[in-house]
Amino acid sequence: MGVLDDVRKWLNDVPLWKELGTIPDRTKALEEKVAALEAMLNGKRPGDVCPFCGAQSFRLDRVDMHGDREVWKCTDTACGKSREIRHDLNAKNRRSGTALLGGNRR
User: Fold this and answer.
1) Which residues contact 17 (CB under 8 A, 6 or more apart)?
2) Edge to edge, what strands does the sheet with 58-64 contain?
3) What is the mean pLDDT of residues 8-37?
4) Residue 59: Cβ-neighbour burial (10 angstroms; 0-12, 13-18, 19+)
5) What is the torsional sign of CA 55, 62, 67, 41?
6) What are residue 84's DSSP bridge partners?
7) pTM
8) Were 85 and a residue from 14, 33, 70, 77 both cysteine, which residue would form a disulfide, CB within 3.0 to 4.6 Å?
């Protein structure tokens, strides 16, 4: 058994071999962290970051004007601010092809 003992001693001197022994413990710890994060999400998609308070609770509240106007609202009770985003300004009108600001209007 002298050869096997020599190989074991040699493997114990290799840093990668020592690190391979810690993989099961690290894998278990990572699985527990992922399970905790999934439990925090509770099956919901997290909100965007609120530009006012920084909380990750900025969500789409409503869409108007055939998708050209969006209203986003912070669902954090301390903030509660909202922002309107217009996609139709400085763009071509979908039906007539003319610009909505300036240009030829009917």
Assistant:
1) 11
2) 58-64, 69-74, 82-86
3) 87
4) middle
5) positive
6) 71
7) 0.48
8) 70
Nearest CA among 61, 105, 104, 103 for reference residue 81: 61
Residue 93 has pLDDT above 70, yes or no: no
Q: What is the dihedral of CA 36, 38, 42, 46, to 10 degrees?
A: 120
Rounded to whole angstroms, how far apart are CA atoms 70 and 55? Answer: 20
Torsion of CA 13, 14, 16, 20, to 10 degrees: -50
Task: State the Cα–Cα distance between residues 100 and 106, nearest whole angstrom.
Answer: 11
pLDDT(9) > 80: yes
User: Where would I find the H helices in the chain?
Assistant: 2-13, 15-21, 23-41
CA distance 80 to 100: 31
Q: Which two tokens mark 4?
A: 């096997």
Specify burial of residue 99 (Cβ count, 10 A radius: 0-12, 13-18, 19+): middle
